[in-house]
Design brief:
This protein is mainly alpha-helical and about 190 residues long. The chain has helices spanning about 1-15, 15-25, 30, 35-45, 60-75, 85-95, 100-115, 130-145, 145-155, 175-190; strands at about 80, 125-130. About 65% of the residues lie in helices and about 0% in strands. Strands 1-2 form a two-stranded parallel sheet.
Length: about 190
Amino acid sequence: KASEHKDQLSRLKDRDPEFYKFLEENDHKLLDFDASDSSEEEEALHRPPDTLEVHEDEDEDDEEDEEQKKVKRKKVSFIHVSLKMVEGWKKAAQRNLTPKLLHEITQAYKAAVATTKGDSGGDPSKFQVTDTAVFNALVSFCIRDLFQHVHQLLLPRAPKNKLKMVLPSTSPLWGKLRLDIKVYLGCTIQV
């Protein structure tokens, strides 16, 4: 390899004399090397030291401690969904579905669907569904009844022309409800 390198440098002197002159002025070590030096370096193997030093950075430890505390807080702050909560959501949705209520219902629905995947990580929800009766009540409510309430919230009046399809994105509430509807539809597809 050393002899090939010397040949390349000699050809460089003929092909690009300006660059060769630049190398002589700025990086003279590149041009003057011994073939014996490079062969010794190639033959020598790197041997790691017997003991390795561990770099401890106090800032990283503090960040890891803060992250662990946040995870612990998130685990503690789960709201367990009960049958009473589901029944309350049903009644409130029948009376008047609001964007805030829809958000709570979709987050609980998302937590219920996450249990079917066995997904404990990912995008955490503030709700947790552990009871099968609560799961069944919540999922059946979301699949059977919630869509009608969302439709009434987005399009409170029937269109004048029954043949013309009205898009939900024309509603003034679409901006507030768009993400919750996306979660709702994604969870329904998952179920």
